[in-house]
C-alpha cells in the first residue's frame, strides 16, 4: 500500500516548493474527484523548510486505481511524503510539536 490509512480512510501527502504549485495541484484534485471520493483536501506550509504540503483524504472504499490517479496528479510537480513524516509535518505546521519531531527521533534511533 502506497498511502497511509487513518482509521479506514486512505491519505496521501505531497510536498511542493511553491505555494502556487501546491494550490494548483490541489485544485486539480478537487476538479477530478467527486465529493464522495475526496473527503478532505488541505494545503499546509511546512515551517522548517518553507515548502508546502498537500494532503488528500479519500473515502474508505475508494478504488486503488483512483488513489494512484491522485498520486500521479500530485507527483507531476510534488514529491511524495512518507506516511510517518506526514504526521510530523502536520504537527510542526499546526504548532503541536512537543520535544523532538518523530522523524528526528527515527534519525537518531529513538535514543532521545
Q: Summarize the amount of helix as a percent range.
A: 25-40%
Give the number of helices.
4
Unreliable stretches: none
Order of SSEs, N→C?
EEHEEHEHH
Q: What number is the mean pLDDT?
A: 81
Work out the strand percent: 25-35%
Q: Could you say which overall geometry the principal axes of the C-alpha atoms support?
A: globular
Structural class given helices, strands, pairing? alpha+beta
Number of strand segments: 5
Query: In this structure, how is the largest beta sheet organized?
Result: 5 strands, antiparallel
Rg: 14 Å
Distance separating the two termini: 30 Å
How is the topology of this model organized?
Elements (H helix, E strand, L loop, with lengths): L3 E3 L2 E8 L2 H14 L5 E8 L6 E7 L5 H12 L3 E2 L2 H11 L8 H6 L5
Antiparallel strand pairs: 1-2, 2-4, 2-5, 3-4
Structural notes for this entry:
- With 112 residues, this protein is α+β, with helices and mostly antiparallel strands.
- The chain is 38% helix and 25% strand.
- It has helices at residues 19-32, 64-75, 83-93, 102-107; strands spanning 4-6, 9-16, 38-45, 52-58, 79-80.
- Strands 1, 2, 3, 4 and 5 form a five-stranded antiparallel sheet that branches.
- The protein is globular and about 35 Å long.
- The model has no long low-confidence stretch (mean pLDDT 81).
